[in-house]
Amino acid sequence: MSFWEKLSKLPRFWIYLGLLIVMILPIVLKIKAHPKMGLETRLVYDYIDHMKPGSVLLMNFTYGPSSMPELHPMAKAVMRHALLRGVKVIGMSLNIEGTGLGLDVFNSVAKEFQEAGHPLQYGKDYVYLGYKTGYAMVIRGIGGDFHETFPVDYFGHSTSDEETMPLTARIHNYDDIDLVIDFSASGSGATWITYAYQQFNQKIAIGITAVMGADYQQYIRTGQLVGLLNGMKAAADYEAAVAKLMEKELHYTPPPYATVGITAVTWAQLYLILMVIVGNLAFFMIRKQQRRRR
Amino acid sequence: MFFSRTLPMILVFVMGVIGASLYFIPHPSAQALENTLSQWSIAIGSFAIFLAITSLIRRYITNIKRGKEVVYNLVALISLFGMALLGLINGTGPDSVFQKIFINVQVPLDATMFSLLGFYVTSAAYRAFRARNVEATLLLLTAILVILGISTIGDSQTWLRDLQEWIMNVPNLAQKRGITIGVGLGMIATSVKIILGIERNWMGG
Amino acid sequence: MVKLVLLLLLTGANSKLSVKARDVPDDGGGRTQIIVKLDNSLIGDIMRITRIEDNGVKKDIYVGEVKDTVIRLGDRELSDTMPVRYYVLVNTKTGKFVTQTVSNSVIPKASLFNKKKLFLLLLAIFYIAILLSYMSKAQKGQELYLRPIAGLAEVDNAIGRATEMGRPILYSTGLLGVTDVSTIAALNILAYITKKVAAYETRIIVPVYDPIVYTVAREVVKDAYTAAGRPDLFKSEDVFFLTQRQFAYAAGVSGIMVREKTATNFFMGYFFAESLILAETGAATGAIQIAGTDAISQLPFFVTACDYTLMGEELYAAGAYLAKDPRLTATIKGQDVMKAVLVGFLLLLTIAAFVPSLSAKVDAIKPYVVGK
């Protein structure tokens, strides 16, 4: 077997090992990227940037631990951005796994604002509703009667209590929610489009893993989505832009996550291209050798 | 025969027609009916979970009895009952043992499985992306341009980003819309066949 | 207030201020639209709009400075049977009375049919009529040509290969519930494959993701064995619910492929990010793989790692192809006709959009085409 034949049949182990090294290095060395925002991400960023102070953003967390690296920093960056613009934030989850992850986003961002010297008030600036079973029924339910769908928040406070929960007390249905952003690794975005947009004209944006992102690009041009946060790249773009904003306005730097992760992803993408080139080189060399033999 | 075939077919027809009609009726009573039907669906789903878990337990026990992969099957059975018991006895609150196991075992396991995707993408690309003919070469070049454009390299090379966005938003979106229209029509046709009882393989036999 | 309303009605139209209320059409009721027209001289004054229900209940729905000569407002959460009026009062910033008026009475009724969806309804009826006409033609014995689908032609060979090798077949119905058309299509194909498998006495393993799909899949496999005359071959432990967690399912199915050394793998239905994990593991074990999905974003992964892939609607058509029932295959012909109609419609709209005199009309019909 010639060198090229051996190379074309390179065992998976070596390919995987190469990828592992390429991905671990930038994370261990904490090599930060300085990404520039793509078009789809810019649409979401600009929309939130122009939301009036006091308007309401509903964040839905329908992802599990497996997609945390992409969606968690994305959700945190969006929440930071909204709060910096004076937008009130409500969180909810349509699957059990997402409940704890959503809570973590809310707690950690609230802690960051506390550390930055701008403490937030629970019930007034942000509310976490937690998990509600029923999926599409919940999405439709919010359009009918928000308080009936979510009578209490995650901690058991009544959502209609005007004193302790003024934020949710004034929400009746989608008319009082300015933007919904769904973070998911699956198809829950389509359910939001079908029910919240189609039936109640609710503005919707989606944050999704890159492997599923292609499914939602078509909805931007049709106007069914405000914008799309697609995978780690969008998370890094958003995180970097909001970090700059936070440094400028609050003199506080949030911990980087996606901006480090995207370096690993870029290196992996270059490695993949290299592998494709090597594979093709081997393919052509073998073909050449075979022709010579004939 | 009546209970196994005729009655289900009548139910499918009635529910199918009601379900389709509800899309066109905005009246609150229609919406209430839709909510009720969705709730029935959730209730039926809850019963199915019992049957499903029973099948899983039966499979594990059968495997253990046959001496087939005993360790794996034991681990699965112990995990199944152990987590259920922990949840029932100790609760599932933020500081419970249940949550600790979930975060320290389930989370890394899930993340590991998802991360495999990166490795598989690389190995699949290595094996499959070959410039065998003109079409394959075009596909290969397009893929490389899109990967470079979507990555942070595209941040500094605007022409690459613009080209990538054009590829994704024009030719790529066009083919996807084509498939989506076909899928939509296929869905309606299949639904019509099911509602009319012409397609009934899914009922068994 | 009732006296005031009567008085205002008797005094007739106000030249500086007018208000019209109307029921929001095609909705679930309880919503109105209010249009207030004001004279230029009123700009800068304070306007108050009060809702007056027929039972006397009043509520201020708007208080604010007049900034424009036309103000449109929406009112909601009303009873869909109770008539309402809107009383508009304009004062100066110091509280001095300027003018007032009251709107017509309106009942925010709930509609029984959303007229904006009429076009969609007609289109659906037209499509169903095409499907039924082709079914009737097929029933009368008319021959309809259908293009061959490579993946389906190979189904029998793939089963045969597993039989020859004495290894089992793996069949996954995807990750969506039984209400999804792709899952139903997957169950239809499962019925066909099980009958073949029963004839060859080959083992089929069906790990299922959804509990309801499990109960249906179990019946489908059991009945298919019975229909093939081999109920004795049905093993209940081979059709089982695995897990309802995406990556745990991927891990479980991958494990089965590796341990059981399946010779043929079928992935039919809707898949998410786990598609490549399943297909690559199968490819690594050397199995023949046939996939079918309408998950567009997952198609590239299946195409790369599987031997044959049914794309989009081919998955739905597969049951009809395999069953060779003319009524079922006829609908595929109907779909193609409808596709041609839609392409024609899209072309017309595209041309119209480029003609300046027609582009406004295209925009006007848009709500009826998209149904909202």
Write the topology of this structure:
The complex is a heterotrimer of chains A (294), B (205) and C (372).
Chain A (H helix, E strand, L loop, with lengths): L2 H6 L3 H17 L10 H11 L6 E7 L5 H17 L3 E6 L2 H20 L10 E6 L4 H9 L1 H4 L16 H4 L9 E6 L3 H13 L3 E5 L1 H4 L4 H4 L5 E4 H20 L7 H36 L1
Parallel strand pairs in A: 1-2, 1-4, 2-3, 4-5, 5-6
Chain B lengths: L1 H21 L5 H38 L4 H21 L6 H32 L5 H17 L2 H4 L1 H12 L1 H25 L10
Helix pairs in contact in B: 2-3, 5-7, 7-8
Chain C lengths: L1 H10 L5 E7 L8 E7 L7 E8 L4 E8 L4 E6 L8 E8 L5 E6 L15 H22 L10 H4 L1 H11 L3 E4 L8 H20 L3 E5 L2 H17 L11 E3 L4 H15 L3 E5 L6 H10 L3 E6 L5 H7 L2 E4 L1 H11 L2 H29 L1 H15 L2
Helix pairs in contact in C: 2-11, 4-5, 5-6, 5-10, 7-8, 10-11, 11-12
Structural notes for this entry:
The complex is a heterotrimer of chains A (294), B (205) and C (372). Chain A has helices at 3-8, 12-28, 39-49, 68-84, 96-115, 136-144, 146-149, 166-169, 188-200, 210-213, 218-221, 231-250, 258-293, and strands spanning 56-62, 88-93, 126-131, 179-184, 204-208, 227-230. Chain A is an alpha/beta fold and 294 residues long. A 6-stranded parallel beta sheet of chain A has the order 3-2-1-4-5-6, sandwiched between helices. In chain A, β2, α5 and β3 (126-131) form a beta-alpha-beta unit. In chain A, α2 (12-28) packs antiparallel against α13 (258-293), α4 crosses α5 and α4 (68-84) runs parallel beside α12 (231-250). Chain B is extended and about 60 Å long. Chain B has helices at residues 2-22, 28-65, 70-90, 97-128, 134-150, 153-156, 158-169, 171-195. In chain C, α5 packs parallel to α10 and α10 (313-323) packs antiparallel against α11. The model of chain C has no long low-confidence stretch (mean pLDDT 90). At the B-C interface, α2, α4 and α8 of B face α2, α5, α6, β10 and α7 of C.
